[in-house]
Amino acid sequence: MMMQKNSSAWLWVLPLYYLRKLYPPPPPPPSNLHRNLMSKQFQFKLVLLGESAVGKSSLVLRFVKDQFDDYRESTIGAAFLTQTVTLDDGAAVKFEIWDTAGQERYKSLAPMYYRNANCAVVVYDITQSSSLEKARTWIRELQRQADRSIVIALCGNKADLEERRQVTQEEAKKYAEEEGLMWSETSAKSGDGVQEIFTEIAKKLPLTALPSARSGAARPAGGARAGVDLNRQAGANPGGDACNC
Amino acid sequence: MDEEYDVIVLGTGLTECILSGLLSVEGKKVLHMDRNDYYGGDSASLNLTQLYRHFRPNQEPPAELGRDRDYNVDLVPKFIIASGELTKILVHTDVTRYLEFKQIAGSFVYRDGKISKVPSTEMEAVKSPLMGLFEKRRAKKFFEFLQGWKDEDPSTHQGINLDKDSMKTVYEKFGLEAGTQDFIGHAMALYLDDDYITKVARPSYERIVMYTSSMARYGKSPYIYPLYGLGELPQSFARLSAIYGGTYMLDKKVDEIVLGPDGKFVGVKSGGETVKAKQVIGDPSYFGAGKTDGEGGKVRVIEEGKVVRAICILKHPIPGTEDSDSVQIIIPQNQVGRRNDIYIAMVSSTHNVCAKDVYIAIVSTIVETDKPELEIAPGLNLLGQISEKFVTVSPLYTPTSSGVDDSIFVTRSYDATSHFETVVDDVHDVWRRVVGKDLELKKREVEVEA
Ligand SMILES: Nc1nc2c(ncn2[C@@H]2O[C@H](COP(=O)(O)OP(=O)(O)OP(=O)(O)O)[C@@H](O)[C@H]2O)c(=O)[nH]1
Ligand SMILES: [Mg+2]
Predict the structure, then answer these.
(1) Which of B130, B189, B287, B292 is the most exposed place for a label (fewest CB within 10 A)?
(2) Is the distance from CB of A218 to CB of A189 less than 8 angstroms?
(3) Cα–Cα distance between A215 and A218 in angstroms, integer?
(4) Cα gap B65→B355, rounded to integer Å
């Protein structure tokens, strides 16, 4: 079977060569890379951290789907979402958003979580001063564990609950300045400040960095990671985009 | 912690993490605990501090090795077969989104005192010294036979019955030399010893087809490897579990497996508290492995041999491998007068497992004598100068009972094979015992994309 006309006897000494014809390797990434560089789309990993119930998942829900849920359960299910921000100069910044999925609750967050995070949103609840303490702990942890170039934004959520405020703007802002963090307040409920914080982060990210395999720099979007793509089935329609993120 | 769980999982090795991920997706309420403060158990990848704490508790890592966090050193040397069963699970559960893979650059076999590349291109096949000209022609006929085989078409069978005839019969039919048999059986079918030769040919046929289709998939070798080390695999399944509500507790000592009056599992005692669950799954170390005095309760595993592994830190690629950044080298048992093959698995900074210009090679084999380190000498000798070496002799444990009666399900130790196929077998086996039916891999719902 599969004998080709112009093959020398050598061609068949081992099956690998003609198997390659049966299962053509996936198309090389450069076309993708090219496409994404041309359209100036960059993909960044963003992680969320903060005490339970400060509104991490609510912020993501507002940002990604412009929804809010008053009776949100602790995070189960979708803890991996993507959303794209388009900047004034036309550059598209795609965030690959990781939520903690509760693994931090018993100090069991996997190193994989911080690995190559380009940015982190550390959330506290302005009505709970203890949550700012927890945010400080996470920031120390990030400074220790994460990539040095990580962009960290401190975010005071539930700003709609002004009457119950425990954390003053001055206090949080001062701390953020000392640590060199971005800072702002948001309300996932009303939507105030949510889009802005993600856009500000997008502006701060090094869009000039050459995309390289998870080196802390931006990655070209569209599944064109430098390694092998398992989702691309052997023999699949070449050029078909197997990205499912 | 007065909640009750469906399943408590002890140990965060790959087997346990795949199981807790899949069980959580099925809607089971899972509590996953580990006595260590890191993920991965025996299949972890350690940074330098953890590595030295593990092997040389009284020694600081040498400064010349570089930054602690650049290291993710695997405790168990394994690669992922590109078209194998683990790949299927990775794709079906979508944990691939948390992982990034690279190919292993080459596969080599030891023959007559030196190593040769397993050909992956026409040119390499032509030049390969592994077979002489006439033997290549015979081998070609053999491979064409395997490739052309169709169960339903007797004209492709050439008088062979894969389910009755032994592999020996098949080799003899094509007149393959002993050296070629070594190559096919050990470097392609990945058998550790020669027992397969006298057994029916079907499993060997399947292994060779899996090898060649894996090889064809990405081109350089049949193997892929996750960036940042194998320890990423259990972490990714742990995240899957957590996303589906699994609770994770590391650094949690397990004091006791609590049984009811009927001898059935009731709960796990940790830090003075007992957490209840219907079932428990755990690696052998939580069920008396290596303990003879009954410490930690009844011993529920038995030893089935030992593996010796030497983790070697090198400052150069392995000589004779064309400076490959990653390789597998197989030393077939016949070549060095043994019963079991010796394996070398090497990865490097390309895979984000160590500092630049450092190479991590693990030499391993099944122990046959009372001097295990001497047994791996033929492998160590191929490495050139070794900067650091950590040798372990690990017993391989297997559970003494199915767990169906007492709701206690024990997984197996990581064996000497060079890949994860047997780990997946164990996952299927435990699943069947725990759930009572076969594991079906359904593709997970794809999450919202905005
Ligand atoms: N008033 C008000 N409530 C909010 C806001 N953001 C979140 N909430 C509420 O706070 C509760 C917790 O929100 P989540 O988004 O689940 O918090 P989380 O940080 O993801 O919590 P964990 O997943 O447990 O770590 C929910 O009841 C939300 O409805 C906000 O901006 N204003
Ligand atoms: Mg949440």
Answers:
(1) B292
(2) no
(3) 8
(4) 7
Comparing alpha-carbon positions, the chain A residue that sits nearest to B145 is A1
Cα B8 from chain centroid (whole Å): 24
pLDDT confidence bin for A69, thresholds 50/70/90:
confident
Cβ–Cβ < 8 Å for B14, B76: no
The architecture in CATH of the region B119-218 reads: Orthogonal Bundle (1.10)
- Are B288 and B298 in contact by the 8 Å Cβ rule? The answer is yes
Contacts of A101 in chain B (CB under 8 A): 239, 242-243
Chain-centre distance of CA B240, in angstroms? 21
Question: What is the Cα–Cα distance from B176 to B168, expressed in whole angstroms?
Answer: 10
Largest CA distance in chain B: 72
The ipTM (two decimal places) reads: 0.80
B297-327, pLDDT tens digit by residue? 688 999 999 999 999 999 999 999 999 999 9
Domain ranges across chain B: 4-56+229-301+397-435, 81-106+304-395, 119-218
Which residue, chain included where needed, has tokens 């170390």? B285
pLDDT value, residue B119 = 85
Class of domain B4-56+229-301+397-435: alpha beta
Degrees, nearest 5: CA angle A230-A233-A238:
115
Please say if the pLDDT value at position B7 is more than 80: yes
Q: Would you identify the CATH topology of the domain A40-229? A: Rossmann fold (3.40.50)
Q: Are the C-beta atoms of A107 and B251 separated by less than 8 Å?
A: yes
Q: What is the DSSP track for A10-44?
A: GGGSSTHHHHHHHSPPPPPTHHHHHHHHHTTEEEE
Per DSSP, the three-state class of B134 is helix
Task: Determine which residue's CA is closest to atom 22 belonging to ligand 1.
Answer: A52
Q: Which two tokens stand for residue B413?
A: 């130790």
| Amino acid, single-letter form, for residue A209 | A
Interacting residues of B60 by C-beta distance below 8 A, sequence separation 6+: B52
Chain-chain contact of A64 with B251 (C-beta, under 8 angstroms): no
Domain boundaries, chain A: 40-229
Q: What is the CATH number assigned to the segment(s) B81-106+304-395?
A: 3.30.519.10
Question: A134 CB under 6 A from ligand 1?
Answer: no
Please give the structure tokens belonging to residue A84.
Answer: 């794209």
Strand partners, B249: B33
CB atoms near residue A65 (< 10 Å): 13
Nearest C-alpha of chain B: how many angstroms from A125? 23
DSSP B305-324: EEEEEEEEEESSPPTTSTT-
Q: Which residue of B has its CA nearest to A10?
A: B126
Whether ligand 1 lies within 6 angstroms of the CB of A158 is answered as: yes
**CA B223 and chain centroid, separation:** 12
Instruction: Provide the 3-class DSSP secondary structure of residue B417.
Output: coil
